[in-house]
Specification:
Helix content: under 10%
Number of domains: 1
Radius of gyration: 20 Å
CATH class: Mainly Beta
Strand order of the largest sheet: 3-4-5-6-7-8-9-10-11-12-13-14-15-16
Distance between the termini: 24 Å
Shape: globular
Structural class: mainly beta
């Protein structure tokens, strides 16, 4: 089975059993990373660096997979992942806009309705403080609070479905209006073309943004060898190389891109509310140290371009200058 990434559906060999005291995943490879709905809504599709082989499921405590020699990418139980990350975007001058993105989420897995069709439940909270400009007037910060329910039905021997819905509140939290409530979703299929080496994915994302509602998604996930991992995917490509591997940790270097921004309901005056949308594209390089069971730390430096601030009202659009991004994150 091709190794599942950070933000994702994984292998079609995922099963859950129900012992008398608790339940555990039989195949530690297959559980995907959390969906995340930040910057790249496609994150939940890509596999993580490291997975168990389809033919040799890991027992709890194993540090390396037998076939691929990669560390296990997640925990094989109810608790899956706690993720905390922060990004800083430089403000070039007084008329420009900088910002910070602080993201956090927790993911658990349940065998619902059965072990063949697991359900991943993610709850997340994001804060985005905005730094300028004086015109147009922007709130001091915007926030996301959401729940994500992702179901992974096994459609056939090599076919995996990905169905998700993510209700949430996207607002400056100043007298939350009805349009702050939004529902995102995704519907995708993934075919395991060459087990452990090549997968094909295709589907649609529903972003429920002011300017962008639907976005096609798909491409190839290719592992030509154990040290190279390629996600030739739209809208989030990633090319990673493992330069260190041991029984305790792996070190990866990568180049990636993503579609950034979101839409929020904000107050413009005492009696006026508006929809604010931030749009940008990002390309970045990063390094990541991974440990067993999905524990990881990463650092990224990138370039952010095609930035736009849009309003649903008649307020004019604003185009901030291209800038740099520094981002780091931890996963437990």
């Amino acid at each position: 089975m091709v190794p599942p990434t950070t933000v994702e559906p994984a292998a079609d060999s995922f099963y859950v059993q129900l012992p008398t005291t608790d339940w555990r995943a039989v195949d530690a490879e297959a559980l995907p990373s959390p969906p995340g709905w930040v910057a790249a809504e496609f994150a939940s599709l890509g596999p993580t660096h490291g997975s168990s082989p389809e033919s040799e499921p890991l027992d709890p405590g194993d540090e390396l997979t037998i076939e691929t020699g990669r560390l296990a990418s997640h925990r094989s139980g109810f608790f899956q992942k706690l993720s905390i990350s922060g990004a800083w975007f430089n403000r070039n001058d007084a008329d420009d806009m900088g910002m910070v993105e602080a993201r956090s989420f927790l993911t658990v897995a349940v065998p619902l309705p059965s072990r063949d069709f697991p359900l991943l439940i993610t709850t997340g909270f994001d804060a985005t403080p905005l730094d300028g400009p004086t015109s147009p007037d922007l709130p001091a910060a915007v926030y996301n609070a959401y729940m994500d329910f992702m179901w992974l039905p096994k459609l056939a021997d090599r076919w995996l479905g990905v169905l998700a819905i993510s209700p949430g509140v996207y607002s400056d939290f100043d007298d939350v209006q009805a349009d702050a409530w939004r529902f995102k979703g995704k519907a995708l299929v993934r075919y395991d073309w060459i087990p452990n080496r090549l997968q094909v994915a295709a589907g649609i994302l529903y972003l429920d943004r002011y300017t962008v509602n639907w976005l096609p998604a798909g491409g190839l996930i290719w592992d030509p060898n154990d040290d190279v991992h390629l996600e030739i995917l739209f809208p989030r490509p990633k090319f990673a190389y493992r330069y260190t591997a041991s029984a305790l940790h792996e070190d990866w270097a990568y180049v990636a891109g993503e579609f950034g921004g979101d839409t929020w309901s904000v107050r413009r005056s005492e009696q006026e509310w508006d929809l604010l949308e931030l749009v940008d594209w990002r390309i970045f390089v990063g390094i990541e140290r991974k440990r067993d069971a999905g524990v990881a730390a990463r650092l990224e430096v990138g370039y952010v371009f095609s930035r736009t601030v849009k309003f649903a009202s008649s307020a004019p659009d604003y185009d901030p200058a291209n800038t740099i991004m520094i981002r780091s994150g931890f996963e437990f």
